[in-house]
């Protein structure tokens, strides 16, 4: 006998798989903060502190090429370009040695941020949810399977806004690499197939305005294009 739900069931959130008609169903989105030294310095944070973890809801995902509204309740709406890791399996207390065995593929993502709210919350040691985990805050490209792109550990990570370069770094500049991130995250969470991990952003973050076109690129992964729409 089928279950009767009292409210509409949320649709499956999925990302396309590059070069295929298949889809990657998204379970959770984990994010790493403060994982590039120059970004830590540009925001005036303590560079001796380890990177931190936070989450976004899976329905914050936005497909490549879409327009997102300028976020509610902010006057300082920022981009943060990141390498995203898509898991095909998981578990808890995964060792660094075996961490990459759980990776299905990689993508380009944006961690859109209400920077003014983040600063207010940080000042009073509050959680970042309203600054990070809001609607349309996770634009993401198609997933590129490992068998086609390998495990990118170095290479250009670059963002332009209206054709002007804003972020320009190398994946090798990450403080924690992908195996270290997966291993450490699995000490706190039982990771599962469908999880996405956004690995942190390099220096050069900044504000956007309605009409801006953001194009992120990572060597071997193509591009992610996101347009900022009108204020809601």
TrEMBL record:
Limits of the Fumarylacetoacetase-like C-terminal domain: 29-228
Keyword Hydrolase: yes
Top-level taxonomic group: Bacteria
Pfam families documented for this protein: FAA_hydrolase
Name by which UniProt lists this protein: Fumarylacetoacetate hydrolase family protein
Segments passing through the bilayer: none
GO molecular function terms noted in the UniProt entry: hydrolase activity
Xref: SUPFAM superfamilies: FAH
InterPro entries: Fumarylacetoacetase-like_C, Fumarylacetoacetase_C_sf
Keywords, alphabetical: Hydrolase, Metal-binding
């Amino acid at each position: 006998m089928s279950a009767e739900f009292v409210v509409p069931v949320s649709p499956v959130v999925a990302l396309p798989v590059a070069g295929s008609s298949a889809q990657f169903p998204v379970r959770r989105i984990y994010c790493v903060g403060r994982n590039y030294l120059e970004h830590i310095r540009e925001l005036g944070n303590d560079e001796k502190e380890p990177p931190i973890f936070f989450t976004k809801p899976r329905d914050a995902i936005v497909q490549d090429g879409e327009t997102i509204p300028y976020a509610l309740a902010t006057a300082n709406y920022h981009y943060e370009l990141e390498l995203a890791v898509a898991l095909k399996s998981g578990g808890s207390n995964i060792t660094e040695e075996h961490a990459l065995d759980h990776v299905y593929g990689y993508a380009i993502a944006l961690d859109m941020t209400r920077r003014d709210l983040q600063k207010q919350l940080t000042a009073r040691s509050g959680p970042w949810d309203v600054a990070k985990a809001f609607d349309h805050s996770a634009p993401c490209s198609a997933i590129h399977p490992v068998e086609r792109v390998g495990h990118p550990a170095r290479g250009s990570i670059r963002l332009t806004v209206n054709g002007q370069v804003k972020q320009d770094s190398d994946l090798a500049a990450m403080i924690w690499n992908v195996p270290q991130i997966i291993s450490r995250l699995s000490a706190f969470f039982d990771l599962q197939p469908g999880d996405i991990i956004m690995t942190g952003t390099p220096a050069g973050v900044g504000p956007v305005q309605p009409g801006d076109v953001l194009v992120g690129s990572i060597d071997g992964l193509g591009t992610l294009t996101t347009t900022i729409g009108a204020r809601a």
